[in-house]
Write a structure and sequence with these properties.
Layout (H helix, E strand, L loop, with lengths): L5 E9 L3 H12 L4 E4 L8 H4 L20 H6 L9 H14 L6 E2 L4 E7 L4 E6 L4 E9 L21 E4 L13 E5 L3 H10 L5 E6 L5 E2 L8 H20 L18 H14 L2 H6 L9 H18 L3 H6 L11 E2 L3 H4 L5 E5 L5 E4 L3 E4 L4 E3 L2 E4 L8 H4 L2 E3 L6 H4 L19 E3 L10 H24 L6 E3 L1 H16 L29 H13 L5 E3 L1
Parallel strand pairs: 1-2, 1-6, 2-3, 4-17, 6-18, 7-16, 8-9, 8-16, 9-12, 10-11
Antiparallel strand pairs: 4-5, 5-6, 13-14, 14-15, 19-20
The structure holds ligand NA7.
Ligand NA7 binds next to α5.
């Protein structure tokens, strides 16, 4: 123990994705001595880990980036309307290089424990490398989708082929000409099934809840279009930060049922043609996720498209959801078409669940053995609070974060902090807003930096430089998060948004569905009111 190296810094940033990199930049600008760690071997966060074939963002390239580097907005290449994983990785590397962020980042170093020392007013952070970082401020940008959820299936260890989770893909994995099983039909599963179906010998998609997949309409961006966006960037970001979803498109105030059936159908058709799941859900009508009648109209339209596209009625049935269209919307250009290939199958896990794996493949309850060479678990993540509760994080009086959130689910004040854990900041923590991730991460990083800056000010006035939100503030925010969620169909549709994908988690909204504009207004109000939800010691 005595030989454990212990180093002191003002702040430690954990994670180097969108939230972490910007946090490093902001804290350096405050003049703090900053250190950062990441368990990966390079920057990128989600986009470091998720490298499966076809991994691509489904948010328009021009708003899937930082808004704060004006020069990069004009000059960074993004030749298509969406960015593939390698392009995103190189974007992150470019940002880190340009702003001198690499200097303070230590890679291949995972946070293992963090213990608050009340007397010293510091966090002691233990890492996988055996080091201890002693810091006043601990800024965690751990990623909302990091900790893999892999189902426990009997016989998993007997399977002779290859098994991989979507976020652990390695380039050497052989799939072309192989028999592939993809389990899970969220954003990852749909992208993976669609891409691998192109060259797999045989592909079976194992589906428990089918979803609604809107075409993405991936395409090149012309120089004229790019020029126009460059010229309008100020306005684009202004609108993004005032909108609900921050995706860079107009969110009309028009209710679905205000149009005649023919006009409504035309709007859906136009949305389908222009592509993008988020645009379909939020860019045509105001009420698809809040009004059951409106949602049913969208469902009817998509069901018709599936029936029209998928020629085999049995496959079409498996691909047809009976849930609300109120999960994270999905996007892919060829997903439904792939099932017209003779070698691509859809297996309904509700009708016949997986019983076990054998050495040759997957045995389902209908008695069938699906012989495969590769199984891809696209089974999602222990999302949001799962990124935190797996670590040994201890606040005041030794309370463990996992226990702190055990009874009522995760609580935070404005997604940024939680009571009893002074000077611990979340970037995109539980209770942060559901919207396009880069602007949300920017907002979170800015708020954490503001709180730290205020705490530093109190230090100059003889204070300890310790900030902690009140129990009342986090309870109030939790109530708001719950109330807004209750008004949406998201709350009636099980998903990771509510922790329902991992057994044992408290079912409660993990995201604020009130929109980024209102979320930012709540933060602005907190600041303008002199940070009443926080105590600065
Ligand atoms: P998601 O969206 O959580 O999807 C996970 C999928 O895996 C979903 O279809 C689940 O079915 C399925 N799943 C999970 N466990 C099982 C078991 N035990 N058996 C069968 N199927 C299972 O994760 P993704 O990685 O696709 O996407 C996460 C986010 O990344 C996404 O929202 C984007 O923002 C990017 P279920 O629906 O629960 O029946």
């Amino acid at each position: 123990m005595g030989s454990t190296p212990e180093t002191h810094h003002d702040a430690l940033v954990v994670g180097t994705g969108f939230g972490g990199l910007y946090s490093i930049h902001l804290l350096k600008q405050l003049g703090l001595k900053v250190k950062a760690i990441d368990s990966a071997s390079d920057v990128g966060g989600t986009w470091f880990w998720n490298r499966y074939p076809g991994a691509r963002s489904d948010i328009n390239s021009h708003v899937y980036r930082y808004s704060w580097d004006k020069e990069a907005l004009q000059t960074d290449p993004w030749p298509h309307n969406y960015l593939h994983q390698p392009e995103l990785l190189s974007y992150f590397q470019g940002v880190a290089k340009k702003h001198g962020l690499y200097d303070v980042i230590q890679f291949n170093t995972e946070l293992k424990s963090a213990v608050w020392d009340e007397e010293g007013g510091v966090w002691r952070v233990g890492t996988s490398t055996g080091e201890t970082f002693v810091v006043r401020y601990l800024v965690t940008a751990l990623g909302i989708l990091h900790h893999k959820a892999v189902p426990e299936i009997p016989g998993l260890e007997t399977f002779k082929g290859e098994v991989v989770h979507s976020s652990s893909w390695k380039p050497e994995i052989e799939w072309e000409g192989k028999r592939v099983a993809v389990i899970g039909s969220g954003a990852s599963g749909v992208q993976i099934a669609s891409t691998l179906a192109e060259k797999a010998r045989e592909l079976t998609h194992f589906i428990r809840h089918a979803q609604y997949v809107i075409p993405s309409r991936y395409r090149a961006v012309s120089p004229e279009e790019r020029k126009g966006i460059n010229e309008r960037y100020e306005k684009i970001w202004h609108d993004v930060f005032l909108s609900n979803t921050a995706f860079g498109f107009v969110e009309p105030g028009r209710p679905t049922l205000s149009l005649s059936p023919a006009d409504r159908e035309q709007v859906f058709e136009d949305l389908w043609e222009s592509g993008n799941g988020f645009h379909f859900l939020f860019g045509g009508f105001s009420d698809l996720v809040t009004d059951e009648g409106a949602n049913k109209e969208a469902i009817k339209f998509i069901h018709h498209k599936i029936k029209e596209t998928v020629k085999d009625p049995q496959k079409a049935e498996v691909l047809t959801s009976s849930d609300w269209f109120a999960r994270r919307p999905l996007t892919d250009d060829h997903y439904y078409e792939r099932f017209n290939q003779d070698n691509v199958f859809a297996h309904d896990l509700k009708k016949s669940p997986i019983e076990a794996l054998t050495e040759d493949g997957i045995k389902t309850s209908d008695g069938k053995l699906h012989e495969v060479d590769l199984i891809v678990f696209a089974t999602g993540f222990d999302a949001i609070d799962g990124s935190y509760t797996r670590h040994d994080i201890r606040g005041r009086d030794g309370i463990i974060l996992k226990d702190h959130w055990a009874e009522e689910g995760p609580k935070s004040h404005l997604g940024a902090s939680t009571s009893k854990f002074p000077n611990l900041f979340f970037v995109n923590g539980p209770g942060a807003v559901f919207a396009n991730n880069p602007p949300v991460a920017e907002e979170g990083a800015r708020f954490a930096a503001d709180l730290i800056s205020h705490a530093e000010e109190t230090r100059t006035k003889g204070g300890k430089g310790v900030v902690e939100n009140s129990v009342e503030a986090e309870n109030k925010w939790k109530e708001q998060v719950q109330a807004v969620a209750n008004a949406t169909l998201f709350s009636k549709t099980p998903s990771w948004f509510f922790g329902e994908n991992v057994s044992g988690k408290v079912v409660a909204p993990r995201l604020y569905f009130g929109g980024i504009g209102k979320f930012r207004a709540a933060i602005a109000e907190e600041k303008a009111g002199g940070y009443k939800g926080f105590e600065f010691r």
